[in-house]
Amino acid sequence: xxxxxxxxxxxxxxxxxxxxxxxxGDSTSVFCSCDTPGFYAVDFYLTDQxxxxxxxxxxxxxxxxxxxxxxxxxxxxxxLTTGNWLYLFDASACYKPDGKIMSYHFSINGQMMxxxxxxxxxxxxxxGTQTVSFYAVDDxxxxxxxxxxxxxxx
Length: 154
Hints:
There is one protein chain. The strands form 4 sheets. The protein has a 4-stranded antiparallel beta sheet, with no helix packed on it. Strands 2-1-3 form a 3-stranded antiparallel beta sheet, with no helix packed on it. A 3-stranded antiparallel beta sheet has the order 6-7-10, with no helix packed on it. The N and C termini lie far apart (61 Å). The chain is built from no helices and 12 strands. It has strands spanning 6-10, 13-14, 31-34, 38-47, 53-62, 73-78, 85-90, 101-108, 111-115, 119-124, 128-138, 147-153. Strand 11 and strand 12 form a beta hairpin. The chain is elongated and about 75 Å long. With 154 residues, the protein is mainly β.
């Protein structure tokens, strides 16, 4: 199941060559990853409960992992309370064409916060220039580019 360049896993467990796998009725998906992008011919063999084996060769087109396209929108939500400026930071427009975004990382004036959702609220308590940074991490651990913004609270 692995030739040194192509790797398969089922329900999070790496498959090994000639290792039998019992497929559950509720999950028939196999995850494939490749060390190098390209086309690969892979032989699959299925054995039923009576011992009959059927084989099929599949051609797999492995593409390179595409980096998350980072996006961050900022919006002043409330400034009615003296000395408090509530801001919304929205990274929901981030885009990952070939996987999942797993976490969102915000830095407000050097204080790091990690979130599983793209929307984050922060209250500033002082006037002046506030420094905001943001990046996201995908399901393979790859980071997006970092967005840096300055917010001026007059």
